[in-house]
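Need Chemosensory protein's 3D structure for a figure. Predict it.
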Amino acid sequence: MIRLLSVLILSVTLVVVTSDDRKDRSNVPGYTTKYDNVDLEAIVANERILRNYVDCCLDKKKCTPDGEVLKGHIKDAIENECDKCNDVQKKGIRKVGKALYTKHPTWWKELCDHFDPEAKYQKRYEKFIQDALAQED
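Structure prediction for Chemosensory protein:
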């Protein structure tokens, strides 16, 4: 369970996309709140666990069952600016995004390159990170 949220948050750090051609998704149900109370500080503080989640997202390592479920949601989350995420999940995404960007910039770049190989959303990632860095956790 913790792994699903962690991988979701790692992946959704890439979700800073605003798309002019988005369809109305106001009635789309949100992601589960089952993982909203996970201690993300402990996860980002543990380099081994964090790297395992990154490698799962990058298809470099076998994922846990929770990680596999998550990978089914990554594309949707990226394309739709995490419109299914609640405020707790968005705060977690900022926390993990900041940690990856500041403490593991190579991992951040690997994730960006993997999920956005054409750099279509690169400027939005930069804005997301600048906004996240300006906010308190």
